[in-house]
Design brief:
- The longest helix is centred in the N-terminal third of the chain and has 18 residues.
- Strand 8, helix 8 and strand 9 form a beta-alpha-beta unit.
- Strands 1, 11, 12, 13, 14, 15, 16, 17 and 18 form a nine-stranded mixed sheet that branches.
- This protein is about 30% helix and about 25% strand.
- The structure holds pyridoxal-5'-phosphate.
- Pyridoxal-5'-phosphate binds next to helix 10.
Length: about 400
């Protein structure tokens, strides 16, 4: 096999299959009647969307752009789950009329439903409501992602959720048929998902809702042996849901993102140079923090190293700083202490690099790296070529020219 030029992302199909199977099995064993939605924002690589479509996933989208992408890749309107606070009216209508899933989040969407109800008196509309879940109250011992609580969905405590349900119930051909419970948590604990499921039961009971579906959203751990996985989450979720809901009637929807693609994806970089600056050793690599964590929120980069030569003859270095390829001081990834000296040609391979990485890459100094898929038989498929100035220039113009500059 010819060696691939770093830096690049690698998707191992076998690992992806493992997590897809684990998800299917967990949903089948614990509930039976389920829909898997894939969170497109987590990684919208066309190859991946197409692969997951073939595996039976719906596309969970939160913008017109994502919807158009999914539709273009062959997801039917029926196989779309449309979420988020910023919806596009045409897309909203298209998904509803095609029989897809729409979870309302905003005030203006209630107005849209009133309009649609009038416009299509002979159609039946079934919609879901995103519930704003007060995690601090539901699970006081857990740390919420945001101190003030989440900003999405309709709030139960102040009566806004109830008012939305009543407003929709007043329309002759509209039914509140789903609850959307997605809530970001820092801990991704199994307990929180149990509490969210319990809250769905409480709401359905209180407002006497007959639900086609409960959508538990995403936010699970996946691809890590030291953390819970789909089996733990759905056992807990379904234990709570089954107190009130019947799997024969109510579908369980899951919308995983990062948990599905962490195990499968690595980002592979090479050491270019090792520099001594006063008493420090800087290892310069051709990958960057901007490829892995453009938001610069992470301080841990799970990785392994492929050494180009025998390490038993190398010195032990007290401290080496692994640095990225940009000319920014903050582009330092991690420190290696008391370990073998790195040399040009060694490869630093970042693990769990699938979620919120390539989709957040900036066009900063270098453009998007290539993405390769390693099939189960070891063969390599190019899912995306590295971007060049050709892609960068494609919609840019200079004065007095009608075409983009040549490259
Ligand atoms: C982001 C998001 C997901 C996926 O979250 P992960 O943490 O990547 O699993 C699922 N559903 C909704 C509504 C989201 O906003």
């Amino acid at each position: 096999m010819k060696t691939l030029q770093t830096p690049f992302f690698r998707i191992k199909e076998q690992s992806l299959q493992y997590d897809i199977s684990l998800l299917k099995q967990s949903l089948a064993d614990n509930w039976g009647n389920y829909i898997m939605g894939y969170s497109v924002k987590t990684n919208s690589l066309p190859w991946l969307l197409n692969y997951l479509k073939k595996e039976g996933f719906y596309a969970e989208v939160v913008s017109k752009m994502e919807y158009d992408l999914a539709a273009g890749l062959g997801f039917s309107g029926k196989h779309i789950i449309y979420n988020g606070p910023i919806k596009d009216k045409k897309t909203f209508e298209a998904v509803l009329l095609a029989g897809g899933y729409v979870n309302l989040d905003s005030n203006y969407e209630l107005e849209w439903m009133e309009e649609l109800s009038r416009l299509y008196p002979n159609r039946h509309f079934r919609v879901g409501l995103r519930v704003n879940c007060n995690l601090a109250a539901l699970c006081p011992e857990e740390i919420p992602a945001s101190q003030e609580g989440g900003r999405f969905g309709y709030c139960y405590e102040n009566g806004v959720l109830k008012a939305a349900i009543e407003r929709l119930s007043g329309l002759p051909n509209v039914w509140v048929s789903g609850l959307h419970m997605h809530s970001s948590t820092q801990s991704r604990s199994v307990k929180i998902f149990g509490a969210l499921a319990k809250f769905a039961v409480a709401i359905a009971r209180e407002y006497n809702l007959s639900l086609d579906y409960v959508d538990m959203g995403g936010g699970y751990f996946g691809g890590r042996d030291d953390m819970p996985d789909y089996r733990n989450y759905f056992k807990e979720i379904c234990k709570e849901l089954s107190v009130y809901f019947d799997p024969q009637k109510t579908i369980l929807i899951a919308e995983p993102g990062i948990s599905l693609i962490s195990r499968a994806v690595t980002f592979e970089t090479s050491v270019i140079d090792v520099k001594n600056i006063r008493d420090r050793k800087y290892v310069v690599t051709n990958g960057s923090r901007t490829n892995l964590n453009p938001l610069v929120t992470r301080h841990v980069y799970p990785h392994h190293i492929d050494y180009i030569s025998d390490t038993s003859v190398r010195d032990i270095e007290p401290c080496q700083w692994i640095c990225g390829a940009t000319c920014m001081e903050y582009d330092k990834l991690f420190e290696i202490t008391k370990d073998v000296a790195l040399l040009p040609g060694d490869q630093i391979i970042y693990d769990a690099a699938g979620g919120y990485t390539m989709c957040l890459n900036p066009l900063f100094i270098n453009y998007f790296p290539a993405v390769y898929v390693e099939h189960r038989d070891g063969s390599i498929f190019t899912a995306r070529k590295a971007w060049t100035n050709e892609e960068y220039l494609q919609k840019s113009f200079v004065e007095n020219e009608t075409r983009p500059p040549k490259y």
